[in-house]
Amino acid sequence: MQIDTNRFSWFDVADDVKELLILAAQTWENTEESTKYMQQALAKTGDNTDVLVAAYRYFYYKNNYVLALTTAEKITAKIKKAENLPDKWEELKPILVNRHEEPQIRLYLTAYAASGLVLAKLGKIEQAKEISTRIKGIDEKNDFGAGILLDILTRPPEDDD
Predict the structure, then answer these.
(1) What is the CA radius of gyration of the chain?
(2) Comparing C-alpha atoms, which of 13, 146, 118 is closest to residue 59?
(3) pLDDT value at position 83?
(4) Residue 65 has what pLDDT?
(5) pLDDT value for 4
(6) Of 5, 23, 94, 136, which one has the fewest beta carbons inside 10 Å?
(7) Are 152 and 128 in contact (CB under 8 A)?
(8) Interior CA angle at 57 toward 10 and 54, to 5°?
(9) Per-residue pLDDT tens for 129-147?
(10) Which helix (H) or strand (E) holds 127?
(11) Which residues of the chain have pLDDT under 50?
């Protein structure tokens, strides 16, 4: 089978990795096989951001929330290290507020918000609320969806009357 890896020229990875990602997509219906391709792509690239984002989406839409969460956390950890971001939220928040339009910081916020969504899916509601509250405090336009998730998680149950 000939695979056109040039379709993904913006992906900064080797052609063999692009081929694995394409195979994962082409074998989507066979979860075991497609997961094997995704895992191989991850193994070959380590912490390549494009592949991590693709893997997060893959695992999320395959309802493999544990691996989706792990992948989102790898993305935030990678950016945190590259950007030398502090561990404490009180120190981190003003940096994120001031730099939230920068591509790497937007990706950090997106991945952090995604981890909140996945935590909610995993039933870890308090952790999901905490992350959503934090992101909502940075994101007035709701670009990252945290406000919507927080609303869903904190909405009182509707009366049946």
Answers:
(1) 18
(2) 118
(3) 97
(4) 97
(5) 63
(6) 94
(7) no
(8) 30
(9) 999 999 999 977 878 888 8
(10) helix 125-136
(11) none
In whole angstroms, give the CA distance from residue 63 to residue 24: 15
DSSP symbols for 79-108: HHHHTT--SSHHHHHHHHHHHTTSHHHHHH
Task: Let me know the angle formed at the C-alpha of 120 by 73 and 91, rounded to the nearest 5 degrees.
Answer: 50
Q: Residues with Cβ < 8 Å from 58, sequence gap 6 or more? A: 24, 34, 38
What gap in Å lies between CA 156 and CA 94, rounded to an integer? 31
Q: How far is CA 64 from the centre of its chain?
A: 13
pLDDT for the residue 82: 96
Picking from 86, 145, 156, 89, the residue whose alpha carbon sits closest to that of residue 118 is 145
* In the block, residue with structure tokens 């999901």: 128
**Rounded to 10 degrees, what is the CA torsion of 144, 79, 48, 33?**
-50
